[in-house]
Amino acid sequence: MGSSFRQIVRQQLRTTALDAAHRLVSERGWASVRMGQVAAAVGVSRQTLYNEFGSKDELGTALVQRETDQFVTGVAEQLARHADDLEKAVTAAVGYALEQAATNPLVHAVLTSARTDTAGLLPLLTTRSEPVLTAASTVVIDFLTRTRPDLDTDTVEIVTDSLVRLTVSHIVLPTDTPERTARKLSTLALRALTAPH
Amino acid sequence: MGSSFRQIVRQQLRTTALDAAHRLVSERGWASVRMGQVAAAVGVSRQTLYNEFGSKDELGTALVQRETDQFVTGVAEQLARHADDLEKAVTAAVGYALEQAATNPLVHAVLTSARTDTAGLLPLLTTRSEPVLTAASTVVIDFLTRTRPDLDTDTVEIVTDSLVRLTVSHIVLPTDTPERTARKLSTLALRALTAPH
DNA sequence: CTGTGGACTCAAACTGCAAACTTGTCAAGG
DNA sequence: CCTTGACAAGTTTGCAGTTTGAGTCCACAG
Fold first, then answer.
1. Mean pLDDT (chain A, rounded)
2. Is the dihedral of CA B125, B118, B32, B74 positive or negative?
3. Where does residue B99 rank: exposed (0-12), middle (13-18), buried (19+ CB within 10 A)?
4. What would the pLDDT profile of A64-113 be if each residue is shown by its tens digit?
5. Which residues of A touch B170 (CB under 8 A)?
6. Could you give the CA distance from residue B137 to residue A13 in angstroms, rounded to a whole number?
7. Backbone dihedral region of A63: left (phi > 0), alpha (psi from -120 to 50 degrees) or beta?
8. Which pTM does this prediction carry?
9. Which nucleotides of strand D lie within 7 A of protein CB?
10. In the Cβ-directed half-sphere of A57, how many Cα atoms lie within 13 Å?
11. What are the CA-CA distances from residue B33 to residues A164, B24, B28, B43, B121 (Å)?
């Protein structure tokens, strides 16, 4: 019971450890990250890290999980920020995704998964891009059905799925600036959504 | 002059050599293909092969080139076959692309290029997927502007680019049967094309 | 009790090196 | 013109021997 203090310390440890791991992964890649480095960065013993995460793989999984959650939350926030303007909302969300992928190596790796050639950062075992993409899709679908209940459900699903795929495609093979790409995709999506059935 | 007979034989050699190389690449992967194997399959000496293609890389380039040309031609044919019905035309073209990617390892590799993890078939040096995709886009754009001159040029370009990207996306990460995917994408494209500007 | 640091095991990764193999070229012969 | 055989240069393969780093155990300290 009364161990809520411990819980907080434990959580602090997890957070700082994941922060340290994030930095190390971004710099050297997952394969070169040593448990000892992470422990040292946190200022804790290697053993303590093992007590908390169990294994390096589990640390990696936790890291990817946190990154995924933050990313999906971010997308949802961008949408919510423009709940009144559908086109702006989509533009913001797509722009956010493109910018995150360009900025954050982990997000980039998670979204494009199999592409380990550029920067093999992740344990392929722990992740495939599928879960992130479905999570992102769910967020978008929820937003659309909530703000625009008049739209056909099937259409919303197909357009959302395509929007997500197109965003990933533009991450993998960019042809324009993130801003212009985001605008193009959102107008495209809006046309498809509001077209005569 | 008067060597048109030679020309034909030479062409025959190129064709059968590329056929043999195609089969070997599909079975063992490009790295494991030996120039001797190709020569033997054609029934010709290794030197003759070198006289014709110069190097293994150039043989690979020629092979990829032929495959690309055939693929793009195939897409154009599918479109032309339904010149009267836009939706059917797009469905056929996308379906053709999906089926080719599923059937022909070389087409799959060319279209998805960088993804060498599944079946590293190609010399990364000789190809990137970009040229194929732009070629395919050009074919689709030409078809659309020819059959539907009323459509806005910018819209046609964006929709086509997205259509191509979505097709590749569904090759990389399939979620449904090729037929249904093709139908979904064509209705999506049609909606976007014919939406109020 | 919980965290620490050191000792330890074991499998995977890397190292150095020799043998086998391939590419690409050349010359002799049909 | 094509083929066969030979060859240099470069690469891959197989296999010692070594190193590394994950994961575990434990005696000890706060």
1. 90
2. negative
3. middle
4. 999 999 999 999 999 999 999 999 999 999 999 999 999 999 999 999 87
5. 165
6. 52
7. alpha
8. 0.91
9. 1-5, 21-26
10. 5
11. 38, 6, 7, 16, 10
